Amino acid sequence: MRHIAIATLLAATSLSSAQAGDILIHGGPIHTGVDAAPEAQALLIRDRTILFVGDLAAAKAKAAKDARDIDLKGATAFPGFVDAHAHLTGVGLRELTLNLDTTASVAELVAAVKAYAAAHPEGPIYGRGWIETHWPEKRFPNKADLDAAAPGRIVVLGRSDGHASVASSAALAKAGVTRDTVAPAGGQILKGADGAPDGMLIDHAQALVRDVIPPPSAATKRLALEKAGALYASRGWTGLGNMSVDAGDLKLLTALAAEKTFSLRVDNYMDPSGAAEVLAKGPFEDATGLIRTRGIKLYMDGALGSRGAALLEPYSDAEGLGLQLTERDKGLALMKAARAVKAQVAMHAIGDRGNRMTLDWFEETLAGDTAARWRIEHSQIVSDADLPRFSKMGVIASMQPSHAIGDLYFAPARLGQARLHEGYRWKDMLDSGAVVAAGSDAPVEVGDPRIEFYAAVYRHSLDGFANADWHLEEAVSRAQALKMLTWAPAYAAFAEGERGTLEAGKKADVTVFSKDLMTVAPAEILKAETVLTVVDGVVVFERR
To answer: N or C, fewer C-beta in 10 Å, the chain?
Structure first.
């Protein structure tokens, strides 16, 4: 399921994108996302817009004689699913480099690197996707592991969350990292018993080895974006919030959309290094209307797994309060610049201290403006005192349900029982009146709408495990989950007037799955197949 042939996907997209005229969809449940009329018999699309939603006979009467008739044959249609938080270039690059997201142990990681090194006998090795929390060795990988797998080779492997990397001895030497190297602010260099770096670099310390791996070329990034777009369409996503985007990637995306080789809707939040244009003129979009630039993406802290999340009280299983990644003066200056041009700010915050500081900075900058729709990405650990502030301040909680069903294996150890209820509290957020926009954070997670929906409504691992530590009371209803993955991402990007529900007059973005996610047993959600993906009235994926 993960590794779908890119040529097949692009061929399907190209073939389907040539179609024009009316499209009539019927023959299965159609969930509109509209509270007053949640289901319909038929959906009629004309000129990239939804013309009619309702009775089949009425839809047929309105349809052109040459309308394309799509009989769902029992499959189920939904408003287009949108990944509110992903890293599109990273999704594509994950498929083009050493992908370690299925490694289940240090031993498997070593074997994967050894095989990759044999297949690629020259040059540095870069990979990403490992996470040690379920490994039997109960430890991070280290330079000795990489040296054994690829002796003498420069190897850098990123943890799945992007907040830590492990480097080989050759990579550390090339970068000049020694026992005397001082970690940069917001970073840590882990060391062994001998006092020398063990290869693990946390958050900003990863920059120390960045230059030992050649950056991907523009051609490689272009291929990665094409691959990611096709892969996402094949999974049923009609759009995404694209985070930490650099200026070159935005230029590539714009060109691909103009060439009609990229068909998803993308709301971009720029890395500060590439944010000059949006900070100068505010939000803007390309000629196709698919590629929009909404604002900037900042980081307050690191990740919980690597103990970089900023906590109010020390970690329960180690010393320290985590890391602050953005200095106050720099962060506030960027926020004030964004507010001046009505650009949005999306700030990563994992720990309860990270979330509190972000809310404090937002409050100081916005000065009572509750309509800016600034976003806290992840909103992962939020104290009881800070929870009501999201709704009160109009701050979007951009959350990833799949994080919970992975993190809750180790979160009890990191947080302790007394504050575990502060984690992954989707229902508490909704009950408080906050808008929760759901996404995946791919390539940190798989980037699959079925997994995000399943996690939101069931809050069990993919194999069905959960216990009292998982706080199952934070699972949401299916109607709430649907809204979190359709309407809420549109609202979070000031687009709820044109997408997010199936209503006449809105953009025709539709996702069709083989099973009705609103009614099937939880385990069956994961077995649903993507049947059809429609973006802007164009079929961009169709299962043959």
So the answer is: C
Nearest Cα neighbor of 286 from 273, 261, 267, 270 is: 267
Distance of alpha carbon 539 from alpha carbon 2, whole angstroms: 21
The closest of 404, 418, 415 to 470, measured between CA atoms, is 404
Query: Is residue 213 helix, strand or coil?
Result: coil
Nearest 5°: the CA angle 65, 67, 69 is 120
Amino acid type, 437: A
Q: What is the pTM of this model?
A: 0.90
pLDDT of residue 20: 56
**Range list of H helices, 264-374:** 276-281, 328-340, 352-366
Vertex 382 angle, CA 133 and 239, to 5°: 75
pLDDT in tens, 1-50: 333 333 334 434 433 443 458 999 999 999 999 999 999 999 999 999 99
CA dist., res. 261 & res. 255, Å (int)? 9
Pairing of strands 510-513, 530-535: antiparallel
